[in-house]
Design brief:
The chain is mainly alpha-helical. The protein has eight helices and no strands. It has a domain of 157 residues.
């Protein structure tokens, strides 16, 4: 029999979430920082130093934050798996009945549900409970190292864009130039992330651009106010 192979979008979820979040945060936070500092009438060197510091600090923060967050998820999954293993050892009959009820709730008749549960228990009982009771699969399982590295790399890549634009523009054009470049990049990123995840491209691009514009406007106002007071 010819094997039917399918590719599903959910297989990308492990790296897609961390990648899109990291790149979006890198572009937006660094651009907002640059716009805020530039709006305070700071020198070009001050703007570049602030942007570079934001890139380094943000990448490290994203890596640490994602690693800690996903590690906590992995710890919870490991604890649940250990608990399930102990329950299987203590009372396999009750665990068989539990599986049968799960399958029955998914549409199988009571007799067939019990038969399927018994067959699953006769094979890899723990794997069956991990998948069907706990809902943990290899595709969706927590991967702290992957999440941390992807977040750091994509943050740094995203942050490099507004930093490079600021470096190329004259001092007077930094605020406008970085703002426009950032909005265009956010629109492209939002569309790309939506397409990769199977969502609506226009909606994904619009929501990223909206929040990006609001963030840069807020930091520009802060920078202008403090620059005026100074």
């Amino acid at each position: 029999m010819r094997r039917h192979v399918e590719t599903h979008l959910v297989n990308r979820i492990g790296w897609l979430r961390a990648g899109v979040l990291g790149a979006n945060d890198g572009i937006l936070s660094t651009a907002s920082l640059i716009v805020g500092v530039a709006s305070a009438s700071s020198s070009k060197i001050a703007v570049m130093v602030a942007g570079l510091a934001g890139l380094v600090a943000g990448a490290m923060s994203m890596a640490a934050g994602e690693y800690v967050s996903v590690s906590s998820q992995a710890d919870t999954e490991a604890a649940d798996i250990a608990k399930e293993a102990a329950e299987l050892k203590a009372d396999p009959e009750a665990e068989t009945a539990e599986l049968a009820l799960l399958y029955q709730g998914r549409g199988l008749s009571p007799g067939l549900a019990l038969q399927v549960a018994q067959e699953m228990m006769a094979g890899d009982a723990l794997a069956a409970h991990i998948r069907d009771e706990l809902g943990i699969t290899p595709t969706l399982a927590a991967n702290p190292v992957q999440a941390g590295l992807v977040s750091a790399a994509t943050f740094a890549t995203g942050a490099a864009l507004p930093l490079a634009v600021a470096g190329l523009l004259p001092e007077a054009g930094v605020v406008v130039g970085v703002s426009v470049a950032t909005l265009l990049a956010l629109v492209a990123l939002g569309a790309l992330g939506a397409r990769a995840g199977g969502a609506g491209v226009l909606r994904g691009a619009a929501r990223v651009a909206l929040w990006g514009a609001l963030a840069m406007l807020a930091t520009a106002v802060v920078g202008w106010v403090f620059g005026t007071l100074a």
